[in-house]
Batch of 3 targets.
Target 1
Amino acid sequence: MKKIIFMGRSECGKTTLTQAMKGREITYHKTQYVNNFDVIIDTPGEYLQTHTLGHALALYTYEAQVVGLLLSATEPFSLYPPCITCMCNRDVIGIVTKIDERGADPERSARWLRLAGCKTIFFVDSKAGEGVADILEYLREPGDVMPWEDTPKTTEKPSKNHKKSH
Ligand SMILES: Nc1nc2c(ncn2[C@@H]2O[C@H](COP(=O)(O)OP(=O)(O)O)[C@@H](O)[C@H]2O)c(=O)[nH]1
Ligand SMILES: [Mg+2]
């Protein structure tokens, strides 16, 4: 799987999505540090909310192949400046979280993420797991086995002896 780094303000759902993508039972966990030990780098929201710490996030993008900007569908504002994605040379995707919440406006959040420069947007309810598989598929690399599969998908061509079935 491609390595992704999640960014977004506190409480937007970075850790919950991280846990949902790993198939973990969701437990409360306050992110106190940049968690860079896996294919998902989880970061504290304070890094995005504090101007001086924002530079650390820009540096951390080099540790990942994909940057995920999270924005909750319930947020009445966005912290992302227009065209911020050009700050790094990685693919940047937008992820709208909490689409299930009362009063959520996923399309409004998606518009802010597009304004920030995200060309691909995902919509998730991390609690129910909705939309999580789409992100995993996006990050998939040849040979990866998805949680809902039991055998790896092969990208190898069939051998000469292998009959094609039509
Ligand atoms: N309804 C709903 N609640 C969510 C979702 N994602 C996160 N939450 C809740 O939002 C709160 C903050 O989540 P957390 O993952 O700690 O946010 P973080 O600060 O960005 O890591 C927690 O109470 C989560 O249960 C979601 O997709 N839907
Ligand atoms: Mg967190």
Note: The chain has five helices and five strands.
Target 2
Amino acid sequence: MRRKYSRRSLIVSRFLIPFSLLAALLAACQPAAATPDVNLALTAAFETAVAQISAPTATPQITDTPVPTATIPRTPPALPGTYQTSMLKPEDLPRTYVTDSCQYIKNKWDSTKAAPGTVVMVVMHHGINKGEASGNDVTVNEHKKIMDSLYEAGFQAINMQQLSDFMYDNASIPQRSVIFIVDDRHFAEYFNDHWRPYFDQWGWSVVNAYIGIDERTDLWAENAALSAEGWVDFQSHGYIHNIPISEGSTDEFIISEMGGAISSIQKYMNKTPIGYTWPGGGFSKRAVEIGPTLGYKLGFTVNERGPVMYNWIPQADAVNDSNPMAIPEVPAGNPLMTLPRYWSTNVLDHIDTVRAIGEEAAAYAEQNKAVELEYYDIVCAPTYGPIP
Ligand SMILES: [Zn+2]
């Protein structure tokens, strides 16, 4: 939003320019102690000038701006571009989604919120095999190595609500965060064996993208017991799950898949999911539109693009050779509903990249801080207030 100057206030400004010059001259040859007198004299002259204009509507322009500097409209500086990096594939470009630049700058520099450069590695897990790994699974030893490596690199695990609050409002989370999303149904043993130790040691939670269709009530019961403990965060992964949503899916099917999963989790776990993991990685523009109307805040693909930051989500415009299996997210129109995920099998190769992207983004933000704050002061502060 841009402050508007009426023709009338421009007239007032014209009257005031000579007084500003006078102020500058006086200030230049007076010791500091004389300043209050100068201001008084200026105020009197200012009021005289205003009185000569029969323009009562001009008054608010004058009373809320100090004499004399702010009476000359300040031109807001051009805002810097989004942080770019060569550490991702060239087609996986960071997309922004906060359209209000004042709100973005306010959230970004609010000292009570996440520091610029706060980065989240979103990880997709499937099986963790006690024997040899196959397909998308990892072995128990690989899993341990992933967890230890992330911990040693300074990462901490967050849950879905924390990620949502961060992505929407830049709410405070650890500067290096990781969210583990385990797809599909598992026995409680899976969580007790492979995830509980990290909750006990470091307070790390894990998300389970659960399938809504009710086949085994005993399985629901043991997962519901984990949900009640709080550290396994159950979210949605479709209702029938085995038919991925595609551009050809009807609204009826989309609503039954996405809405059905909410109903099941509400029924068995007494909680309302806000994260939707697209079964089979399939989504459509229509499903991305419908999801938020059902209550979803975030959606997750199987596309490995990069980490995410506040107002920064790497996505592709089109199918491309660097990631030919990945459905492009940009045409679906809502980056928040199509967040990328790293496959657990590839996590170890990317920890350093994620850390470096966070550091680079923090440095880029720092470099642009003065310009953004000046822009905020001129354009935003009158309506958005000071940045906490
Ligand atoms: Zn699945």
Note: The pocket of zinc ion is lined by residues 183-184, 237, 241, 279 (CB under 6 Å).
Target 3
Amino acid sequence: MKSKDFTRRDFLKLSGASIAAGMLGVHAPRVLADSGQAGSFQVFRHGRRDQAKVALSYDDCHLVKKLQELEEILRDYPDARVTFFPTGEALLKTNDKDAGIWQRFIEQGHEIGSHTFDHVNPGIRSTPNLLADYAKWLAALHQVTESRPQVRFARPPFGNLSPSYQEMCVEYGLVATMWSASWGGELALAQKNIEAVEYGDVVLFHVGWGDVDANTPFALSLLEERGIRAVTMSELYFASVHEEIGVGSCGTLAFGGGQRCPE
Ligand SMILES: [Zn+2]
């Protein structure tokens, strides 16, 4: 996969050999540790606004039938990539019903991020609780994927970036991933949002009825019509990091929290 190789190569180039060592373990290194951001909390909300790319993301993922339908829909758009944010419970449950479904998504070039094991609101969880939760989520991912894909992104349930959730992200080197556009719900209402797509959008969907059956085909067809590529979260994110390093300014990057400009 061309784009996958590209991001992996650039990831190593950007972050140094320490990243490679950390790829093997639960304790992933801090992203961009060599760029002066060690230990800082990072939020990714959208990518560059000057490149015709968006990242479609799907939360929760409890419904195996809808996942299978999405897999079929994506077959019609072989260049499109999406990112899933399943809970650990959903990973295990759906894999029980369709063994290998997550490994297939990985092999098709899609990406998986964390959405906690059990979808409990991070606002009522301690840091140690969330650290244990992520380890449990990752164990579930490893159980359902032979290839143990790299995990870079984490989306908090209910979009709640609580202090404990932020600490969990820093500890595991995860980029907290929010969204800049929401294309879920009834198509009649979502259509307006989809048509208002902006380059660099991180798009929120859920694996549910309307989002998969109606909104996704509408969105993929509209993106194709407008020449906008649906890419993985990693591709959108690393294009932003490149822009940041190239320009030497924090002004255009969609990071929040305690982010500092790279030297
Ligand atoms: Zn959720």
Note: The pocket of zinc ion is lined by residues 59-60, 115, 119, 157 (CB under 6 Å).
